[in-house]
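**Polypeptide and fold**
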Amino acid sequence: MHLVDANILIDAKNRYYAFDIDPGFWTWLEKAHRSGLLISIDAVRDELVAVQDELADWARTHRDFFLPVDQWTAQNLAPLSAWAARQNYSTAAQRAFADDQADFLLVAHAAGHGDTVVTHEQPSPDSRKRVKIPDACEAMGVEYIDIFSVLRRTGAALHLRGEGDAPSVPTPTAQTIPGLD
């Protein structure tokens, strides 16, 4: 399962997969979710609905995309906190990581469920000012990946079509995943 960070959805909405430019991306998200490939957590949803925009509306209408904290997530909270405390992060960085429910819970959830975190963040192991998701993932034995790699892994191909037109770029080697075609 791929566990989606808020920055994936926010960047998609604000930049390359805006709702009015590429509704196919959002359809792909929904189909990938229904196929058991993508999920996120309530803390990410809370972050998204705090702003009044199209993405907040999407998060409200796709409630099942977001999972609550469960026992498998909870059992990773203390080890994750302990790891952060042993690093060279400033006290403020440790506090911010623990207070940022989405990032902290995302890594704990992934560790508890064996999920892969999907994020745009890059590792920064020498950072003292901010705990990055990839660094926390590595510490907890969790894989992380970017959205473009997930699109490729799942064989997604987003095509621009006119009314009744065939795909503008043929993809004879594209693979399809059951439930995503």
In short: Residues 2-153 form a domain with the Rossmann fold fold (CATH 3.40.50.1010). Strands lie at 2-4, 38-41, 66-67, 116-118, 144-145.
